[in-house]
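Re-run requested by the PI after the first attempt was lost when the workstation crashed. Everything re-entered from the original request form. Ligand of interest: iron/sulfur cluster.
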Amino acid sequence: MSEATTISVPKKSFLERFLLLDLLQGMWLTLKYTFRPKVTVQYPLERQAVHPNYRGMLRVDEDLCIACYLCEKACPDRCIHLEGERGYAKGKGGKYATYFYIDHARCLFCGLCEEVCPTDSIYHSNEFEAAVYNRSDTVHDLRILHSGQVIVHYER
Ligand code: SF4
Ligand code: SF4
């Protein structure tokens, strides 16, 4: 059985209550920041650069992919599906992906697929605007994964 926790609130003196010191302190803080340069970013009209290590929407360089299935196997959430075939395509021989799907709605953005890829063809971009109106639009095929999704710039 859990015990009740008692939190003691510091008592204010009569003078502190009478002079509304807390209120004055708050107003002083507001006044101090009123004349400082604004730090608020007017998103979506302004977009800030994200940190280089940010794990955003996944991208796949289809020219580098050798369809080894390592990313599909490493994915803990089974959101990668691909199929490969051996042959001659894009001016070179070897194995290449014939289809490649990533369901971003299920993706944990854990980076495991990126880590195991032997050719660095799958990677996290710095793209963070992933909102869509339909659930099916969160599933990206090789065409979108290669060139990136079309970014909707919202305006008021
Ligand atoms: S980031 Fe993680 S969850 Fe998302 S596709 Fe890669 S391995 Fe799967
Ligand atoms: S691990 Fe890399 S090379 Fe292998 S299938 Fe995935 S993206 Fe392609």
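Saved to the shared folder this time. The chain has a mean pLDDT of 88.
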